[in-house]
TrEMBL record:
It holds the Pfam family GHMP_kinases_N. It comes from Actinomadura sediminis. This is 4-diphosphocytidyl-2-C-methyl-D-erythritol kinase. Pathway: Isoprenoid biosynthesis; isopentenyl diphosphate biosynthesis via DXP pathway; isopentenyl diphosphate from 1-deoxy-D-xylulose 5-phosphate: step 3/6. Its EC number is 2.7.1.148. The lineage of its organism: Bacteria, Bacillati, Actinomycetota, Actinomycetes, Streptosporangiales.
Length: 309
């Protein structure tokens, strides 16, 4: 069997609406995912046992020291799920090349899991009579995490439930982004817990999240200015409480000309929407000179999800 390589994108949340805490410990979400052109690459090839190696992608300065290489890596769990479904042994070597910031709120770990699902399915499944259809991979992805199905799908989509139930959104045009990374990550469970704590201290009920009509209209129109006004993240106050320095990063981006700014997902990466590619490049340079971020990255979206290359 020949190795199979899959390219998979990062995401930014254009809207992250978080409902009240459920009895099972989760929250109902309205999560507008947007895939952007920062990619990890996962290569699967036959091996005597399941092994994972992780390296920074060529030209990338992603810090990979905290990425697990055992069963703590979602990609390993993905490989085991595919093997179990196909009745195969999980004898595979997975090489992960990372360009998506680690623990940055851009779903890099979930992206790697999605890529591993697709790569292992292509490696082990029968191409003449495949047992795993795209819908099967989406279902397996949902068992791994709320962000995994979107990494398979890509584009722009509205996620409901825990974020795993996806509906593709209508988008015209291309949107241009700058991402400012921070030293060290933020724990997603810790950010959700802080969100719950802030809400409890504030008192009053927590409304069920609803899809933003203004945001969906801006996407359909390809209107970057309208989109910038509609960006929302219910986790942002919690991320700022846990990492107050992010407020200065957001303010700097706005002062330097970003159309819109928000914390990406659970953070700590900050996302800035620019008017066009030139505006994104200029903003990234200005943020670099300001010294407010560990690294700045430019990207555009939407882009396709996990793709065999």
């Amino acid at each position: 069997m020949n190795p199979v390589s899959v390219r998979v994108p990062a995401k930014v949340n254009l809207q992250l609406g978080v409902g009240p805490l459920r009895d099972d410990g989760y929250h109902d979400l309205v999560n507008v995912f947007h895939a952007v052109s920062l990619f990890d690459e996962v290569t699967a090839e036959p091996a005597d046992e399941l092994r994972i190696t992780v390296e920074a992608a060529p030209g990338s300065r992603v810090a990979i020291g905290g990425v697990p290489t055992g069963d703590g890596n979602l990609a390993a769990r993905a490989a085991r799920l595919v093997a179990e479904r196909l009745g195969a042994a999980p004898r595979v070597a997975l090489r992960i090349r990372k360009a998506i910031p680690v623990a940055g709120g851009m779903a890099g770990g979930s992206a790697d899991a999605a890529a591993a699902l697709l790569a292992c399915a292509r490696l082990w499944d029968d191409p003449a009579a495949p047992a795993l259809a795209p819908a099967d991979l989406l279902n397996l992805g949902a068992r791994l995490g709320s962000d995994v199905p979107f990494a398979l799908l890509g584009g722009t989509a509205v996620g409901t439930g825990r974020g795993e139930r996806l509906t593709a959104a209508t988008v015209h045009g291309t949107f241009h982004w700058v991402f400012a990374t921070a030293d060290g990550g933020l724990s997603t469970p810790a950010v959700y817990a802080e969100c719950d704590r802030i809400r409890a201290a504030r008192g009053g009920g927590v409304p069920e999240p609803r899809e933003s009509g203004a945001l969906m209209a801006a996407l359909a129109a390809g209107d970057a200015e309208a989109l910038s006004a509609a960006l929302t993240n219910d986790l942002q106050p919690a991320a700022l409480a846990l990492r107050p320095s992010l407020r200065g990063v957001l303010d700097a981006g706005r002062d330097l000309g970003a159309l819109g700014a928000l914390v990406s997902g659970s953070g700590p990466t900050c996302a800035f929407l620019a008017a066009d590619a030139a505006g994104a490049a200029g903003l990234a340079d200005a943020l670099d000179r300001a010294g407010v971020a560990a690294q700045t990255l430019t990207a555009h979206g939407p882009v396709p999800g996990a793709t065999v290359i």
